[in-house]
Amino acid sequence: MVTLVETSDEAVEDVRDGATLLVGGFGLAGMPLELIDALIRQGAMGLTVVSNNAGNGDVGLAALLAAGRVRKMICSFPRQADSYVFDALYRARRIELEVVPQGTLVERMRAGGAGIGPFYCPTGAGTALAAGKEARVFGGREYVLEHPITADAALISAHRADAMGNLVYRKTARNFGPVMATAARLVIVQVTQVVPAGALDSEVIVTPGIYVDRVVRVQAAAVAAGTEC
Amino acid sequence: MSHVVCETAEHPDRPPLSMAELAQRVANDIPEKSYVNLGIGQPTQVADFLDPASGVVLHTENGMLGMGPTAVGEQIDRDLTNAGKVPVTEMPGAAYLSSADAFSMIRGGHLDICVLGAFQVSVEGDLANWHTGLPDAIPAVGGAMDLAIGAKQVFVMMTLFDKDGIPKLVSDCTYPITAFACVDRVYTDYAIFVFRSAGVQVEETYGCTVGELTQRLSLHLEHCSFR
Fold it and tell me: Which fold has domain B9-223?
């Protein structure tokens, strides 16, 4: 059952050293910046982080990386114009990297959250990213055996939560949130609005509250932002 | 969609296509009411040349169907970007998607066309566009492998030669492969290529003839003719 907590610090207080974390966002859209800042203050070390990217600029996931808290990144697209924090750590061999095709990354979490075991996926068949994985041909097409991902905790940013922990997202900031919410034992969500039960239209709830453990309200960021690439 | 293949059109007397002309040329080949994903980088430019009345719906793998043009000024919203993380706008009737849904659409064969950039394409239609394989390069695949195996048609948009003049249409890719035998059409500054089971046909040339291309690429290329 969901708990509404007062502060981001309280929300992440029991994330342990060595934990595997799912961190929402596609670039900065949907990245739970306040929860990550609280995690940096909290101090957990040796983390494995599953996220689409490996940090942008100096904030959020990039700041967590810069603080030396992450042992391994599992992501689809680490290298970007503004991924200099990750790039330096990687080149200094201070961080491990597992690159996963983006659709496979999210499907592995979906499987993890839905109780599905390893599954066959055609993406990447025969490529370097399938190296060492079992491959099988079905109906003349080659598929790669992929394993589910589950995690100790997920840090997600949504737009609005109700008192039941039901969530709605905003525009393309939705991205990985709904799937990550299913695939972690402890799901921590930051939102900009908390409304009473019944205030969200039951027909449009994206993440039902059963998946959500903690909700914290944060200040809404200024909507307009400079272009980040 | 069927491209009615007519005679190869050679334009040796005009200059090679500019990137904008290339984007226009790709846009012309996208049928009305198609669902299309434009890869990050050069393919994004194709959007500027799509007729708004064409009913083409743009998909972006970070989670949206019905993507509109690049956002400017007060339209810029940090929660609304394309897969290149550039702020964009939404078209009437747009839908937001979780990443799982965005990739079910891709892998499940629901997209009509994706347009991707490339380091290399082989005559077998193999695509290399995710990693140079160089020792200091940081690999980053994003949605490229999913798009290449999933879209009904894969269009590649690239310069025909790299900055050192080395051809990017090759007999075998030397860069790490994104997906095998997946490419349907390649749009370049010097020529447009169509990939068929029988081999690679040249549909149009710019600033050269098919004969000159065959020589420069050291590849066997076919003229298009009525089937």
Answer: Glutaconate Coenzyme A-transferase (3.40.1080)
Active-site choice (B61, B124, B203, B204):
B61
Helix or strand (DSSP H, E) at B120: strand B120-122
Right CATH for A3-114+148-217 from 1.10.3720.10, 3.40.309.10, 3.40.1080.10, 3.30.300.20: 3.40.1080.10
How large is the ipTM?
0.94
Residue range B130-166, pLDDT digits in tens: 999 898 899 999 999 999 999 999 999 999 999 999 9
**For chain A, what are the domain ranges?**
3-114+148-217
Q: What is the chain B residue with the closest CA to A122?
A: B149
Nearest to B141 among A28, A76, A125 (CB): A76
Rounded to a whole number of angstroms, the distance between the first and last alpha carbons of chain B is 16
Answer yes or no: B7 catalytic: no
As a whole number of angstroms, the distance between CA B137 and CA A159 comes to 36
- Per the prediction, chain B carries an average pLDDT of 94
Instruction: Check B96 against A171: CB less than 8 A apart.
Output: yes
pLDDT for the residue numbered B226? 56
Residues B141, A172: C-beta atoms closer than 8 Å: no
Interface residue of B78, B174, B178 to substitute, partner A, most A CBs within 10 Å:
B78
Residues ≥6 apart with Cβ < 8 Å to A25: A31, A32, A51, A52, A53, A60, A61, A157, A173, A175, A176
